[in-house]
Every structure is written in structure tokens, then in C-alpha cells.
Amino acid sequence: MNILAVDTSTLVLSVAVLNEQKVLGEKTTNLKKNHSVRLMPAIDELLHDLDLSIAEIDLFAVTAGPGSYTGVRIGVTTVKTFAWAQNKPFLAVSTLAVMAMNGFYFPGYIVPLIDARREQVYTSIYNVQSGRLKGKMEEQIVPVDVLLEELKETEKDILFIGDDSSLFEEKIKAELKERAVFAPSSLQFPRASNLGILAMQNWLDSNRSERNDYAPNYLQLTLAEKNLLGRQS
């Protein structure tokens, strides 16, 4: 089974093609440029390099968010359109879970962070059990201080992943001391290859496409949605 995996949920754009669990190719760039302009050329280039056509893709996967509203929409719209056009299954995977996969071999807890502004973060807590990434906490938007209070109750070392973790590094170190570990820059961003691996696992577990009923996971309303609800109330 060939899998096309696409992540545009952060400033990083990542595209990968896998066959089952084997990564055939991956293209990842960390540039402050418009994903809507760069995504299709990246997909075309990768498929061309692998001598594959879009018709040879059997499963389409995308990051579900949280992250950039615009970025998530670009990825979901593009990948879902491919899935509909090719009549192939579509799966969405949490951006936080994809980030956490970068710490797969870390022996403690893995905490991906995405800045949600106002001293809040999108986050969850993961660890690895029986060779699978497992969530220990529901994905949520939470004040950093509240997250740290919860983490202080644990005894394991904690790996923080995400470019935005540097925004809170001083506070994290002050609260967790030597238990706080920060991923190197090469492991800070979501990779489409990890997305493909998780999508394949989810497909084998459920054999269910989300093509008909999927909606992006923003964890909070956009400003436009908040304004609309305010006018309606």
C-alpha cells in the first residue's frame, strides 16, 4: 500500500511517500512561505523522483491540527480532494502525535508544544508502550503554568518537542529542573514520514476512511467563528 502523507499545519511543509511502513521519499522545508503555492510542486516533485503517479497512491494522509488555521485547511483540502478524485481512503492524524513521534525512543514522557498565544499551548502527553505511541492526556489548549503543575506530579523525565518550546524554556526549566529535556532542532518539527507511519497503523486498526465526515481539529474557534457566535447570541 502506497501512502501519500502531507503536513502543512505549521510553518514547516513536509511531504512523504511510504510503502506500508517503509519511507520511499520525503521532502521537508522550514520556510516562511505560502503553503498554498509550494504544496503542489512539492508533491509533484516527490512523485516524479519516485516514478509514481497520483493514481498509484492507495491511502492519503494529512495532519489534522492543531496548528495554523490556514495551513491545516490547505493540507486537508488538497489531500481530501486527491482522495475523492482517486476514490481512495483518507485519514487525518493529530499534528501533536506526529510531532511526538520524533521522541519515539525517549524513555520518559513526550510533550509536544505549539504556541496558542496568551501564555497558552496546544499540547498533549505521550509515551511509548509495546512499540506504539500512546496518548496519556487528551489534546487541549492549556495555560503553560497549568501544564507544568500537572507534569510536576510525574516522576519521569519529560521531552519537549516543537519550535515553540523555546518560548517557554526558561519557565519549564525553573519548574522541572533536570527532568526537562528539549529536543534538538532537527527533531522539533512534524515530519510527513511519521504521519505516514501513524496513518498506516490507524488504517490497519480501523480500516475506515474519514473522507466523508472529517473536519479539521483546531481545538479552539477561529476569531471569525467567535465573532459570528457573538453576533448570534
Name its key features.
233 residues; alpha/beta; Nucleotidyltransferase, domain 5; 2 domains; five-stranded mixed β-sheet; 12 strands; globular; transferase activity; T6A_TsaB; transferase
Instruction: Please indicate the percent range of residues in DSSP E strands (runs of 2 or more).
Output: 25-35%
Terminus-to-terminus distance = 49 Å
User: CATH H-level name of the largest domain... which superfamily?
Assistant: ATPase, nucleotide binding domain
The helical percent reads 25-40%
Pfam family, one: TsaD
GO molecular function: transferase activity
Keywords: Transferase
Protein name: tRNA (Adenosine(37)-N6)-threonylcarbamoyltransferase complex dimerization subunit type 1 TsaB
What does this structure look like?
- This protein is α/β, with parallel strands linked by helices and 233 residues long.
- It has 2 domains: 2-94 and 190-232, Nucleotidyltransferase, domain 5 (2-Layer Sandwich), CATH 3.30.420; 96-187, 2-Layer Sandwich (Nucleotidyltransferase, domain 5), CATH 3.30.420.40.
- It is 35% helix and 27% strand.
- It has helices at 35-49, 69-86, 95-100, 144-152, 169-176, 192-206, 223-232; strands at 2-7, 12-19, 22-30, 59-63, 90-93, 109-117, 120-123, 126-129, 132-135, 140-143, 158-161, 180-182.
- The protein has a 5-stranded mixed sheet, sandwiched between helices.
- β4, α2 (69-86) and β5 form a beta-alpha-beta unit.
- α1 crosses α2 (69-86).
- The radius of gyration is 18 Å and the shape is globular.
